[in-house]
Amino acid sequence: MKSAAKVVRDMLDAVLRGDEASAMSHIHPDIKVIEPDSLVYGGVHNGLSAFHTDVYGVILSKLNIGIGRCEVIGSENKVAVSMDVTFTSRKTGQSLLMPFVELYTVCDEKISDLDVYPQDTKRLAEFWDAN
Considering the domain 4-130, what is its CATH architecture? Predict the structure, then answer.
């Protein structure tokens, strides 16, 4: 059985490879994702389809994602990830480095809950609007 930390790391690795099918295979069909309300894709998103379309799809339609530092700390079913995410505009090529903390719950080797905390939502929203 995979540890919760391994499930999360495998999903993040798939995102970075651009392997959407593999990334989504790590997501529970009934996932609940909470993004800061101040972001374009903010709010509570329930279910795999909502996560795929309203969060993952919206972000990748405009930005490429890179992850630098990535520390995964986990227990049996809870994982915290502290990471540095670089967003690069597909339109302008400009980049923004943003520290993040994400909190994951894993159930049956699938990510069932995700709470996302960018360090500076105002700066991220301004970058989104400018690019």
Answer: Roll (3.10)
